[in-house]
Amino acid sequence: MELSEILEIIAQDLEEVEKVIEENIQSEVPLVYEISRYILGSGGKRLRPSVLILSSGTCGVNKGMEIIASAAALELIHTATLLHDDVVDEANLRRGKTASNVIWGNKASVLVGDFMLARALGLIQSCGNLELIKAVTDAAAKLAEGQVLEVMSGQSMIELSEKVCFDIIEHKTASLIESCGKVGAIIAGAREDVKEAIGNYGLNLGIAFQLVDDALDYSSKEEEVGKGVCQDFKEGKITLPLVYALRRASTREKTRLIEILQRDGFKNEELDFVLNVVEKYKGVEQTKTEAKKFADKARSSISNLPANNHKSSLQHLADYVVERRM
Fold first, then answer.
1. Which of the ends of the chain has fewer CB neighbours closer than 10 A, N or C?
2. H/E element holding 86?
3. What CA–CA distance (Å, rounded) separates 57 from 74?
4. Three-state DSSP class for residue 98
5. CA torsion sign, 49 to 52 to 55 to 57?
6. Given a cut of 60, is residue 1 above it in pLDDT?
7. Domains of the chain: which residue ranges?
8. Nearest residue to 139 (alpha-carbon basis) of 171, 167, 109, 169
9. DSSP secondary structure code for residue 230 in this structure
10. Could you give the CA distance from residue 294 to residue 48 in angstroms, rounded to a whole number?
11. Residue 93, strand partner residues
């Protein structure tokens, strides 16, 4: 099923979210709007607002300004972290376009990210729901912790392992999607067990989504993923496809991989070696297998909730996340 089909039920809501986002990136400083519009117009699946709106609908409430404002806020938080992330990673590409930090510099990119965070917090505050505010701010803090964990792993400040990789994924990606599920349920006035169930859906969906991203980094072409192939490796990030391959690699292969990773730049033949090792030991396949397990967990988390069209879309979204090619 195509993403547009899955989200057709909330297409009008997503249009309203875009309007609120547009209103909230307006600024008296032209560069603030220019950078904001550039990155927001670079594509993106609007996964986070979609999960929030569908979660609220699953709980029986599918209309209201609280839903739209919260969905816009969470997308702004996500977008702000992309700006910050590209600066930290010294990235050149974002979704197939030149990264903002390359065009406007690190300082402007970071400050516009801060602007977006401030706007997002204003939107959340306007909802006047303390439980909602706490869910979002807790997730934002956890996301920042995930970014620090990733920096630490890249600088060998912590020993990298499968557990550390999952910790980074849970904090950096899944926590915000978990928050989207919870916020949708909070707005709908759902019971505590339902909030927990939909939060777990978001958490597991987020982990599955990031695992597929990590797999695509080693298995797709640049035009498909919107960034260079092996980009994570080039930025010093060891993700699960490589961790799984390293488990099975020979001592000689491991030694060479570590030598390559510790360099500032890579030759094409060195990147080919990395890709060949990951392919040889089926690192991508194992990562995709793990992604499917988490997508199954996401579906299972909400299986006992009453059936409706919004719940059905959440279930289909879990399938889409693991089947996508970009």
1. N
2. helix 65-89
3. 17
4. strand
5. negative
6. yes
7. 3-323
8. 171
9. T
10. 17
11. 98
Identify residue 140 by its one-letter amino acid code. Answer: A
How far apart (Å, rounded) are the C-alpha atoms in residues 225 and 222? 6
Q: What pLDDT is attached to residue 153?
A: 83
**Bridge partners, 98 (sequence order):** 93
Three-state SS string across 5-17, please? HHCHHHHHHHHHH
pLDDT tens, position by position, 42-66 = 878 899 999 999 999 999 998 899 9
Predicted pLDDT of residue 70: 98
Q: What's the whole-number mean pLDDT along residues 186-206?
A: 98
Model pLDDT for residues 251-293, shown as the tens digit of each residue: 999 999 888 877 777 788 888 999 999 999 999 999 999 999 9
The candidate with the shortest Cα–Cα distance to 84, out of 106, 52, 69, is: 106
Q: Residue 17: which of 70, 72, 76 has the closest Cα?
A: 72
Give the whole-angstrom CA distance, residue 17 versus residue 148.
30
- What gap in Å lies between CA 126 and CA 180, rounded to an integer? 17
- What does the alpha-carbon distance between residue 297 and residue 42 come to, in Å, rounded to a whole number? 31
Query: Can you tell me the distance from the alpha carbon of 208 to that of 211, in angstroms, rounded to the nearest whole number?
Result: 5
Report the phi/psi class of residue 94: left, alpha or beta, with left for phi > 0 and alpha for psi in -120 to 50: beta
Return the closest-CA partner of residue 198 out of 13, 294, 58, 321. Answer: 58
Cα 297 from Cα 324, distance rounded (Å): 18
The H or E element containing residue 93 is: strand 93-94
Amino acid at 55: S
Contact predicate 316/54, CB 8 Å: no
pLDDT, tens digit (0-9, with 9 covering 90-100), for 214-253: 999 998 765 555 556 788 888 778 899 999 999 999 999 9
| CATH domain 3-323 topology | Farnesyl Diphosphate Synthase (1.10.600)
- Could you tell me which residues come within 8 angstroms of residue 227 by beta carbon, excluding any fewer than 6 positions away? 91, 93, 94, 95, 96, 217
